[in-house]
Write a structure and sequence with these properties.
40% of the residues lie in helices and 17% in strands. Helix 5 crosses helix 6 and helix 17 packs across helix 18. The protein starts with 17 loop residues before the first strand and ends with a helix.
């Protein structure tokens, strides 16, 4: 067998994809692997000699399941925070050499491509991308039962490479393979689409199909199955089936529970999937005893959160406050908290990467060392920020002819467009906003974010922002950028001067966009919910809107404080006390970026959940 030195998979010599180096010929499974090899052949040859590649599947101890995983904008298998968090988690696992494999679905048409008309009406279009350009198709397949039919599942692989060449494989399950009928082939076309029947079928592919494909590929020593939200909870049913020693024996609940970990990400009902048992029976048949399913998943309907809660030895929320809220929602369960983070290197812009390399060498492998940012000269902090800001403003002006001013205080707001995010809070009093810009200093705002295709209230929010932008005109420029993705997010979190967040408490379980901003020296101006309760130091790392009470949501009071702090604190500091402003930027990095990263988060999962 010929081994591809880049990915460690079998290379078919008949394909004729090879490269010669120092008199030897090396074969590859794809042109992508060949291209990577030719950039740095010595690295891959040395890895082969050290037996570091290929990865030995039997060495992998943890399987990380997520409905979406966001690795790169060219692989559009994510919609927002949950998927980006999953991708960042696996990137840190690669950096920290944690033996994990990721499992998700391959969405050939992505989430959706967003277009906006002049009134802000959102239209959703399929995303066109070619998996073969970015992923490696494996030959193994397995079957799962859906509505009495055997649906074949294939798999693609992508290797995330860490700072030490350690690789974390990510498996993308795919039903668009020969042998399936057209409906089955289209099952995984779109992320979060279709009705309840479609959603349950996708979750069967992820949970049950995911466990089976791991076994088929040789991942036979997995000791922990981490469910990133309840979408993957059906994996516990497959593990229970495997726990039976024979047809007459009972399920080994304790052994399966010992293997499972569950992270819940939101108090919003839409994040907790529920399926009518008649629907479950029609799709899954009699493949699992109904009484056991009712015992684990709820007596009235199959609640995926309860299924995961009942079959996990460790459960956590994603911020301290979210842990408290989760314990109130599910009072009979022990629920810990591990606050989310972001992958530091991924979300730090080029100018700040160079700055950190100069003053804090080794920061990429050890983001905790970003606490030393307090010693970086202020003028260098500001110079790095100006480079990223100019890049953003130039991009916006070139693509939308917006005429934004690179010297004006620029405030960013980018996240999923849904009602509880209160994106329209800023526009409660347009005249007040005008007066603030006139009296305190020039203001301009950049918005972005997609509404779920079925979220009419979220779509209405986008229309309200577009309407407000027209009313404000040149007095307070407001730009809404369509088709928010990872590339746009990188530009926004590093290019604006201030990051705004106005969620309705306690719906913001964590939030990670403000963490990304902090890595680029951009402070937050946010409601005290989610991670900001832990990261906020007034006037040091940013500013708060409202109180820390968990359920206080006075729109008028929050809007009044937002306007007041903008006019009397934030805008004057930006224009009149630049030295103080840069000090806040430095503290955002030193205090928040050094802690709110996935390296720290993964280390906590290893200690608290995996070991």
């Amino acid at each position: 067998m010929t081994i591809d030195p880049v990915c460690g998979m079998k290379a078919d010599e008949k394909k004729g994809i090879f490269s010669e180096y120092q008199g030897a010929r090396y074969y590859f499974c794809s042109q992508k692997c060949k291209a990577n090899f030719e950039k740095a052949p010595r690295k891959y040859i040395d890895a082969l000699k050290k037996n570091e590649s290929p990865r030995v599947e039997s060495d992998v101890k943890i399987a990380y399941f997520s409905m979406e995983i966001g690795i790169d904008s060219h692989i559009p298998t994510y919609s927002g925070g949950l998927g980006i968090l999953a991708g960042d988690t696996l990137k840190s696992c690669a950096d920290l050499r944690v033996p994990v494999v990721g499992v998700t679905l391959l969405y050939r048409k992505g989430y959706f491509h967003q277009t906006l008309d002049g009134l802000g009406n959102q239209q959703e279009l399929p995303i066109t991308w070619n998996p073969e350009e970015h992923l490696m198709r494996l030959t193994q397949t397995i079957d799962v039962g859906i509505e009495g039919r055997n649906v074949k599942i294939g798999v693609w692989r992508y290797d995330i490479e860490g700072v030490t060449d350690f690789k974390v494989p990510v498996l993308f399950l795919d039903t668009n393979i020969d042998g399936n009928d057209p409906e089955e082939k289209a099952l995984c076309d779109f992320l979060y689409s279709g009705d309840q029947r479609h959603r349950l079928s996708q979750e069967i592919v992820l949970g049950i199909g995911g466990v089976r494909i791991l076994k088929q590929l040789g991942y036979k020593n997995v000791q922990r199955y981490h469910m990133n939200e309840g979408h993957a909870a059906l994996l516990v049913l497959e593990l229970l089936r495997e726990s039976k020693t024979d047809e007459k024996s009972d399920f080994d609940y304790d052994s399966v529970r010992h293997k499972c970990i569950f992270t819940t990400h939101t108090p919003v009902p839409a994040g907790h999937d529920k399926f009518d048992y008649e629907l479950v029976k029609s799709i899954m048949g009699e493949s699992f005893p109904a009484d056991t399913l009712h015992m684990l998943g709820g007596s009235d309907e199959l609640n995926m959160t309860f299924l995961a809660l009942n079959m996990s030895h460790y459960v956590n929320g994603v911020a301290k406050r979210h842990g408290e809220i989760s314990r109130e929602m599910f009072p009979t369960y022990t629920i810990d908290s591990i606050t989310n983070g972001i992958h530091s290197y991924t979300w730090t812009c080029d100018s700040f990467r160079a700055l950190f390399e100069k003053h804090i060498p080794g920061w990429r492998a050890d983001p905790l060392s970003l606490r030393y940012s307090l010693s970086i000269p202020k003028e260098e902090i500001w110079d790095a920020h100006k480079k990223s800001k100019n890049r953003l403003i130039d991009h916006i002006n070139q693509t939308s002819n917006a005429g934004l001013d690179s010297e004006a205080l620029t405030i960013g707001f980018a996240r999923r467009a849904t009602q509880y995010k209160r994106a329209d809070l800023l526009f409660s009093d347009l005249e007040k906003l005008r007066q603030t810009a006139k009296n305190a200093g020039k203001l301009q705002f950049v918005f972005a974010g997609k509404a779920h295709p079925k979220d009419n209230a979220g779509k209405d929010l986008i229309r309200k922002i577009i309407s407000a932008s027209k009313q404000l005109g040149a007095d307070v420029p407001v730009i809404y950028l369509p088709d928010y993705d990872m590339d746009m997010a990188r530009m926004l979190v590093s290019g604006v001067d201030l990051w705004l967040n106005t969620p309705r408490k306690p719906m913001e379980a964590s939030g990670t966009s403000g963490m990304k901003a902090a890595h680029n020296g951009v402070p937050s101006f946010s409601v005290l919910d989610g991670w900001w309760l832990e990261g906020h130091i007034e006037g040091v790392t940013g500013w708060a809107i409202g109180t820390s009470a968990p359920f206080s949501n006075e729109d008028n009071a929050d809007a009044a404080e937002l306007y007041s702090k903008l006019e009397y604190v934030i805008v004057p500091m930006y224009y009149n006390n630049r030295d103080r402003w840069i000090d806040v930027m430095r503290h955002s990095i030193a205090v928040n970026a050094s802690f709110f990263n996935t390296h720290r988060m993964v280390q906590q999962y290893v200690i608290n959940a995996y070991l």
